[in-house]
Write a structure and sequence with these properties.
alpha/beta, Rossmann fold, 2 domains, 15 helices, about 15% strand, globular, Type-B_Carboxylest/Lipase, EC 3.1.1.-
């Protein structure tokens, strides 16, 4: 079979066919964001002559995995990390729905090259699937006085503009784009819903800490902490002296520093509330207000949003000391400004701590959004057979992508039938705006996925 060739706005690309699915990997949507372009807004890539091979994943953004990662995170060397990948059932088709994926990873790690994010199963269901790399850590999110803010969001906008301009050549409909992501990628998805630039018709938000965004003042505190660790001034000019690989390592280290010392005087109240140092920043230009507030006011983007039943159980088990008591948990929650509330019958202290944080950070914001604007709401409730995991943060990924067996959370025999139901719902929503159950409202609540 002859490898397919498709024209993009910047040149032709050659893909490959595997098991009936055509894929194009590592296509640049913006120029390499390093050298003179470092800490600047993305710019178009240089056009190329002839046909460019799109047969392997492109460079991944510099990153250092977080401790305890349960997914394989391959690193691909190179400067041109602003690239994307396309899986399509047929480049010669027309009008197919499009899914555009933003990976998670606390905005410091992850990439589109991770095996669990292979889009072939979506393509077999008649969808054109696109996955995107974007800048991470300080490169993408640090607020710098001499640089544009929210560079990672601008990268994602550039990728969505590429999809708008190019996806019809791959069989997709640029008017039927669904943006979706998990965790930090879901937070970015919410930011785009709030900005509502007309680049996506629908959005799927998986396990977002929906209220998470930084004020400019708090983001500046994070930049100061990072600069002290790097030994430079807290500016783009200062950080330019730090190699991207070292800055990536420092960015991941700052996540740990924040987790170990949730002091609002050091990090800022919005940083501590989110427990993440790298987030979209309300800078007054790219983001005029927190995405959560924008989303609450509505808009014309169809929304499917949900959480996992035990989002923070595994994290709580890893972070709390052995022998912790219910009184200890209540005191810790009090230090965070949270009320412990009643203990679920039979819940251990670790489970109670996870219950409270999951409710406040994940479920309550989703319910508030769904009460304020039309939305379909789900909960993924299949529990891992592994002890102390439950339906943990990220466990839905293998089911969403139909790529079971690649997550360290699933156990040896995850139910394939459940993966089929989840994928069917996501594809139906992308194609029609209806995942297969009623919108959240007075007569319907949350649709629960169970085995």
């Amino acid at each position: 079979m002859i490898d397919p060739v498709v024209s993009t706005p910047f040149g032709q690309v050659r893909g490959s066919v595997r098991e009936g699915v055509t894929r194009f990997l590592g296509i640049p949507y913006a120029a390499a964001p390093f050298g003179e372009a470092r800490f600047r807004a993305p710019t178009p890539p240089e056009a190329w002559d002839g046909v460019r091979d799109a047969l392997e994943f492109g460079p991944t953004a510099p990153s250092v995995p977080l401790p305890g990662s349960f997914l394989a995170e391959p690193a691909v060397a190179g400067l041109g990390c602003l690239n994307l990948n396309v899986w399509t059932p047929d480049p010669g088709a027309a009008g197919l729905p499009v899914l555009v994926w933003l990976h998670g990873g606390a905005n410091v790690t992850g990439s589109s090259a991770m095996p669990i994010y292979d889009g072939a199963a979506f393509a077999r269901r008649g969808v054109v699937f696109v996955s995107v790399n974007y800048r991470l850590g300080a490169e993408g999110f640090a607020l710098l006085p001499d640089a544009v803010a929210n560079r990672a969001l601008l990268d994602q906008i550039a990728a969505l503009e590429w999809v708008r301009d190019a996806i019809s050549a791959f069989g997709g409909d640029p008017g039927a784009v669904t943006l979706f992501g998990t965790s930090a990628g879901a937070g970015s998805t919410l930011a785009h819903v709030g900005m509502n630039r007309g680049l996506a018709r629908r959005a799927i938000v998986q396990s977002a800490n929906a209220r998470a965004a930084l004020t400019a003042a708090d983001a500046s505190l994070v930049t100061g902490e990072l600069a002290r660790a790097a030994g430079v001034t807290p500016t783009a000019a200062g950080f330019a002296a730090v190699a991207p690989e070292r800055l990536a390592a420092l960015s991941t280290a700052v996540v740990g520093d924040l987790t170990a010392d949730l002091d609002p005087a050091r990090w800022g109240a919005s940083t501590v509330a989110a427990a993440q140092p790298f987030l979209p920043v309300v800078d007054g230009a790219v983001l005029r207000e927190a995405p959560f507030e924008s989303v609450l006011r509505g808009g014309d983007v169809d929304l499917l949003i949900g959480t996992n039943a035990d989002e923070l159980l595994a994290l709580a088990a890893a972070s709390l000391p052995a022998g912790v008591s219910h009184a200890d948990v209540a005191a810790l929650l009090g230090q965070l400004g949270l009320t412990a509330g009643p203990v679920r019958e039979g819940a251990t202290p670790v489970e109670h701590y996870a219950d409270v944080l999951t409710e406040l950070l994940f479920r309550e914001p989703v319910a508030e959004i769904a009460r304020a604007r039309p939305a379909f709401v789900y909960e993924f409730a299949w529990p891992s057979p592994l002890p102390g995991v439950g339906a943990a943060h990220g466990i839905e990924l293998g089911f969403v992508f139909g790529n079971l067996g690649l997550s360290g959370l699933e156990g040896p025999t995850p139910p394939r039938e459940l993966a089929g139901r989840v994928q069917s719902a996501w594809v139906s929503f992308a194609a029609t705006g209806d995942p297969g159950w009623p919108r959240y409202g007075s007569d319907h609540g949350v649709f629960v996925f169970r085995a």
